[in-house]
Design brief:
Blueprint (H helix, E strand, L loop, with lengths): L2 E5 L6 E5 L11 E4 L9 E5 L8 E8 L2 E11 L3 E4 L13 E4 L8 E10 L6 E11 L8 E7 L3 E5 L7 E5 L2 E5 L17 E8 L1 E9 L6 E4 L1 E3 L10
Length: about 240
């Protein structure tokens, strides 16, 4: 398998995996932990109102001794979450369910912030390397999902078969837009509509999920973000 590899000249302690937002919150974090595969399989509402802006969810033990606090930072363009995480098909991935009308202006999206903390506390912690892989970024002729990434060290795209994602540089970062093909389910095996981004010394991940297109009807779509190395593996 041959893959396309893109590396940034510099990196930050935050990776923004957007389906549309980039920002950074600075704070003092605990010592670095090694590279980890993260599992978003168990969560509880930490504060706020379920599925409303500023709600915070604690995902327990995403790796040994580490929790992840997931905040609904903002809704835009009439978007809404119907679930913070859909447990199928894989309990390990983060799978927010977005209700959106693509024809809205601006494009509907929800902005999420993930902060890594010492388990059962609010003390930030730094992970040596975090791999973030949005998968199944697909759509139709009138409704397409998109992702924006910034602050990563590098990202990897499939080249055999070729990636079907449209890539554009925008002020917020790198925009990855779905093709007009809809693939069943949210399998990471459809690597031609997925990517893997890596960030070193990561204390926070910021992401948004969104849709674009001419469809004036409201529908829900499940997003799927895996936090493991090798979803789209690097191969020279």
């Amino acid at each position: 398998m041959t893959l396309f590899y893109h590396r940034l000249a510099a990196h930050a302690a935050t990776v923004a995996v957007s389906f549309a937002l980039v920002a950074f919150a600075a704070f003092t974090a605990a010592p670095v932990l090694g590279q980890q595969s993260l599992s978003f399989s168990s969560y509880s509402l930490e504060s706020g109102v379920d599925l409303q802006q500023n709600a915070v969810y604690r995902f327990h033990d995403v790796t040994t001794g580490v929790d992840a606090l997931v905040t609904i930072d903002a809704y835009r363009g009439g978007a809404a979450l119907t679930r913070i995480d859909d447990a199928s098909p894989s309990a390990a991935n983060l799978a927010p369910v977005l209700s959106a009308t693509p024809a809205n202006t601006p494009n509907p999206q929800v902005d999420l912030v993930i902060t890594f903390v010492t388990a059962d506390t609010s003390t930030p912690i730094v992970l040596d390397t975090v791999f973030v892989s949005p998968v199944d970024i697909d759509g139709t002729a009138t409704r397409r999902e998109f992702a924006i990434l910034s602050g990563y060290d590098y990202y990897i795209l499939e080249s055999d078969p070729p990636s079907e994602l449209a890539i554009t540089t925008i002020p917020e970062g790198t925009l990855f837009t779905a093709p007009t093909s809809d693939y069943s389910g949210t399998s990471p095996d459809t690597t031609w509509v997925a990517l893997t981004a890596a960030v070193v010394n990561a204390s926070q991940v910021q992401m948004s999920i969104g849709q674009t297109g001419s469809d004036a009807t409201t529908a829900t779509r499940v997003s799927s973000i895996h936090f493991v190395p090798g979803v789209v593996p690097y191969s020279q």
